[in-house]
């Protein structure tokens, strides 16, 4: 029986998206004996996704999102809700797992039974695939967190830059503690980590490059927050969402939040 | 009683002590001031196996300020008696054995008139001439036997002290050095004889590879023997720079733990050195080799089975059993030669007496 579900949220599907999606799915292909793939998408995209014939080996489950909320966080939350495996991971459409991911997460999940979230090192690359930086590696820096290798709430309150995609999550623990809050712009994954560590969930880093993330791809969510005039966030708003995350992590469920300019 | 009779009595008593294993084997040892040293552990290992096999082995130190090894070696080593030259006023007899480490060559003149079996212990061949009077030889002071740790070192000794009888007793790598049963951590175990090189390597690494600044360098000093092995086995790689090294305990301990070693080849190549590590003659290449290995490790690249097998087979000869057998055999032979020579001297004296 497969123990891991890979959640792959799809919001739209143009030509470029299809290429990226195929690459993302290809990166899971070799894990077909151990993982299943759940592609969460708006109802209207399902047929097109099925027609793509994304994999001959993977067990793919297409989850239709019939609501109007088809943003990244809502799609992931729906995937978590429907997840029936012990663990899940999140794969963004423009990202890829590395070959060592499955071996590494399996080894760590086996050796550290008390840990519920594992974050591999993420290699950030630009759209050309050139190396930019690592993310999640800092938990292994000497003296950075209280216990080397583990992420703690105190450190998170000062350092926000952690990547949740590519991580391995114990499904029941996330269901108990609540998943992403879809009304938090920019800082939804930060807030989740703050909430988990505040609630005593052990979050551990895996010192292997398990995931490759394209940073600031044009039209990606975070690119849009920076560059798209329609949804661009100014400095005050960035600060607001950071501060909000630091207030909201005490609550399991989302509360109504309105940004008002200072 | 004439002089002959006195000598006969002395020799008979020496023979009695030898037969009853009461003769003392002294190992002159320096005070590490609680700093663990492989060379001192090796001395204690030899003394311990001799003691456990009925020999009267003792650690000989300068004075009672000696701090001992209780803070870094296990309890079993405390079985060994420690006697001091100054405070215990020991008398070294004809049937005793004294083993003097090479860097203690300055005491050799004081031991010239001592009639015991006299042995030089060479663990660091570069230290041989450090305190030895220029142009003098060990045999000038009656030291005609040597124990060393490698073939290479034996060859060197025979080149400069050809009159010496040289035995090889390689140290052993403890059973506490085993591969980790847990996940390996992104730590680098570093062992450099020269602290300046130690600092330089770490600084160069962090400056040249800032994306790896989160990698921890673990300074393998100030640990007990067991803490050392535990700390070593959870590291992903070891770094070793010790140009003066003769035997090279640290890389072997790494190999026994399954931890790959990146190292600078010392001035005299250890006997065991082979394709069992990432070796270079050029110290300036170490940082790049290390970073390349670490980046590959982070991506999940493993050492080839061939290298892993080489690492395993390299350490096979350095077992405690081999070390113990070799120690017992060498000292057994030294003592038996001395017993025979005392017997011969005794026979000669007795013959003189009857004539």
What brief labels describe this structure?
heterodimer, A: 262 residues, alpha/beta, Spore Coat Polysaccharide Biosynthesis Protein SpsA, Chain A, 10-stranded mixed beta sheet, globular, B: 355 residues, Rossmann fold, 5-stranded parallel beta sheet, 9 helices
* Secondary-structure element order of chain B, N to C: HEHEEEEEHEEHEHEHEEHHH
> What's the story with the biggest beta sheet of chain B?
7 strands, parallel
Give the rounded overall mean pLDDT of chain A. 92
Model regions low in confidence, pLDDT < 50 over at least 5 residues of chain B: none
- Tell me the overall shape of chain A: globular
* Fraction of residues in β-strands of chain A: 15-25%
Radius of gyration of chain B: 23 Å
Distance between the termini of chain A: 53 Å
Describe this structure in words.
- The complex is a heterodimer of chains A (262) and B (355).
- Chain A has nine helices and ten strands.
- Chain A is an alpha/beta fold and 262 residues long.
- In chain A, strand 2, helix 2 (46-51) and strand 3 form a beta-alpha-beta unit.
- Chain A is globular and about 45 Å long.
- In chain A, helix 7 runs parallel beside helix 9.
- Chain A has one domain (4-248): Spore Coat Polysaccharide Biosynthesis Protein SpsA, Chain A (Alpha-Beta Complex), CATH 3.90.550.
- The mean pLDDT of chain A is 92.
- The longest helix of chain A is centred in the N-terminal third of the chain and has 15 residues, at 15-29.
- Chain B is of the alpha/beta class and 355 residues long.
- Chain B has two domains: 3-172 and 320-354, Glycogen Phosphorylase B (Rossmann fold), CATH 3.40.50; 185-315, Glycogen Phosphorylase B (Rossmann fold, 3-Layer(aba) Sandwich), CATH 3.40.50.
- Chain B is 37% helix and 17% strand.
- In chain B, strands 3-2-1-4-5-6-7 form a seven-stranded parallel beta sheet, sandwiched between helices. Chain B has a five-stranded parallel beta sheet with strand order 9-8-10-11-12, sandwiched between helices.
- In chain B, helix 4 (195-208) packs across helix 7 (286-298).
- Chain B is elongated.
- The two termini of chain B are 16 Å apart.
- Chains A and B meet through helix 4, strand 7 and strand 10 of A and loops of B.
